[in-house]
Amino acid sequence: MTAASGPVVSAWPHLFTEGAAGSPVLISLHGTGGTEHDGVALARELDPTAGIIAPRGRVSEQGMNRWFRRLAEGVFDVDDVEAQSDVFADFIRAAVAEYKLEGRMLVVVGFSNGANMALATAIRHPELVGHAMAFSGMYPFGDRDLPGSLDALRVLLLNGRQDAMAPYASVTRLAQALAAAGADVERFEWDGGHGITRDELLSAREWLAGVAASR
Ligand code: MLT
Q: CA-CA distances (angstroms) from residue 11 to 4, 37, 42, 55, 92?
């Protein structure tokens, strides 16, 4: 790719593991206040043989790492969601070139604020990242519609039905909007709140193995 890929990649704090030849590459995003180490831990739970790119969110909210600004809990600065997801897509492109990952299946995965960034990035750049797994994510674009056709996108949404931080109505709106735009959407729901359960991890592993096999 371009000569700029090295500086773009090295300027963004992240951890990288190559993984087994031909395995998916999980681009794994931590939640608010987390670090790249949380991203690695989640990715390893999903597929211990996968490649991993685990960056650190570069937006700070009172010292906590995040991926985009918010005006209040659950009220996002949507301009920033869009701008940050575009910058993050540039990082992914540069990392693919830097680490020679062309041809590998890219899956963006995240928890909470990381899930919302994962969703925003895949929805705005489905030609770059065709697969997204969102744990405790929600509709990331406020009152704006989803952009364009999403025929090439496969998404797994994993949510607790009583999650006050990712309200069920927002997740349903997201699932419906994704499906209407042509995306392949699966949902895993459980009775509970904000977090990642063992059953969700099992379901996510199954989904990941299925999409990797069908590729
Ligand atoms: C967000 O800001 O993305 C969500 O409200 C979840 C969180 O608190 O991080």
A: 11, 17, 23, 11, 13
- CA dist 207 and 158 (Å) reads 11
170 is catalytic: no
Of 28, 89, 31, nearest to 55 by C-alpha is 28
Give distance in angstroms: CA of 113 to centre of ligand 1.
4
163 is a catalytic site residue: yes
Q: How far is the CA of 63 from the centre of ligand 1 (A)?
A: 15
Q: How far apart are CA 34 and CA 193, in angstroms?
A: 18
pTM value is 0.96
What is the per-residue pLDDT across 89-111, written as a single tens digit (0 to 9) for each? 999 999 999 999 999 999 999 99
